[in-house]
Amino acid sequence: MTLDADSDGPTESSANADPLLAVEGLRTVFSTDKEEIHAVDGIDFDVREGETLGIVGESGSGKSVTARSIMGLVKSPGRIVDGSIRYRGEDLVGKSEDELRAYRGGDIAMIFQDPMTSLNPVYTVGNQIEEALELHQGLSGSEATDEAASLLESVNIPDARRRLGEYPHEFSGGMRQRALIAMALACDPEVLICDEPTTALDVTTQAQILELLQDVQRERDLGMIFITHDMGVIAEIADRVGVMYAGEIIERAPVERLFAKPKHPYTRGLLESIPGRNPEAARLHTIEGDVPTATEPAASCRFAPRCPKAIDGCDRVHPSAVAVDDADADSAGTDGADDGAIDGHTVSCLLYPEDRSREWRLEGHRDGDSIDATDLEGARTDGGTDETTSRGADATTSRGAGKATGDDASADTRDDATNEVIDE
Ligand SMILES: Nc1ncnc2c1ncn2[C@@H]1O[C@H](COP(=O)(O)OP(=O)(O)OP(=O)(O)O)[C@@H](O)[C@H]1O
Ligand code: NI
């Protein structure tokens, strides 16, 4: 659902062709006696070879359920109720457990926050890597052992051959996470999903593991989904970012763009909570309150109760995604190859498009699916522009504006970004 005429136009025309993984309209629900929890509530994204999609959001926003849905690991009382998850064009939703097992760990591998949940304490690390090699690459005997040792070396575990004979508890936390990465690589995956893989580690080890994952990804041209609650980690590792809130992706953009020009009040709040990023704030800024558990279909903005910018209407209209690729003078003409909504910047918030009247926006978002460019023309307001809007979040030209993504912000400009506020 994008508030522009081309929202579901073809992406085939873009230079790097079909995505490895394409998630569309995914909904995953947990049904209990009392209620239905809409853990993942209609999300879209895709991942291409060699790129990292970062998914960021607070606890409870639906990040892990998203990952488990892709892996086919959602168990009763949870189930996928809508949408598709296409791997190289093949929809995984609705496949049998046997069929899914072939993808899981093979084409699509996952690394969890706590390596002990994935490593079996009663087998040696070597046994476990060799088993994966046998299962997914048909290696056995000394061939498997050699390959296991070389995998451990490739994740920078010294004295690899000896350490193959050790048990997981003999490894430190960082070493275990490295072993787990080696195990994932033993499956020779094309997509690697990392769910908070560094959260449990100290800062130095965390940096090393992030670097390792980046190296591994580049070497193998993996499509990576990296899940974290930490915007600092996102800045390190992501190419594109989806910001999740209460089951929805409320903003997405290339990473430089997101840091330079965050649009959603929630994204701005997350960025302000990065220590040292906002020198004027003496204390660490956090957003008051928690992510609500979504127990009803979305009929309003789920962030509204915590939103410093909420307007009349946020409590009764559910926002659609609006394309906000400003055609800024300072960024125009950079990267012409990748047009198309998927590379663009979209935000699901009733404050956008900024150059429309509030009435128009409420109306437009209410039935966002059917809005087209001609409707937009008639509804343009005259006096409503200010500093921020004059750059032109223009929903009518969102496709062409795809060229403005990506390179428009250097690391130096990042620090100013959150000082920019929406002037209502
Ligand atoms: N097995 C389950 N049964 C019922 N509800 C669940 C289950 N698993 C997840 N949920 C609900 O789904 C929502 C999303 O949870 P999820 O674990 O995806 O959040 P998250 O973004 O990964 O959070 P965290 O950062 O804490 O890992 C939450 O409201 C959670 O309570
Ligand atoms: Ni999680």
Automatic annotation (TrEMBL):
State the superkingdom: Archaea
Biased composition annotated in UniProt, kind: Polar residues: 386-399
| Location of region: Disordered | 362-424
E.C. code = 7.2.2.11
Q: Where in the cell is it found?
A: Cell membrane
Q: List the GO terms this entry assigns under cellular component, sorted alphabetically.
A: plasma membrane
Mode of membrane association:
Peripheral membrane protein
- Cite the GO molecular-function annotations of the record: ABC-type nickel transporter activity; ATP binding; ATP hydrolysis activity
One Pfam family, please name it: oligo_HPY
What NCBIfam families would the database entry show?
Answer: oligo_HPY
Subunit structure and binding partners: The complex is composed of two ATP-binding proteins (NikD and NikE), two transmembrane proteins (NikB and NikC) and a solute-binding protein (NikA).
Q: Name the chain's protein.
A: Nickel import system ATP-binding protein NikD
Record the organism: Salinadaptatus halalkaliphilus
Q: What is the lineage of its organism?
A: Archaea, Methanobacteriati, Methanobacteriota, Stenosarchaea group, Halobacteria
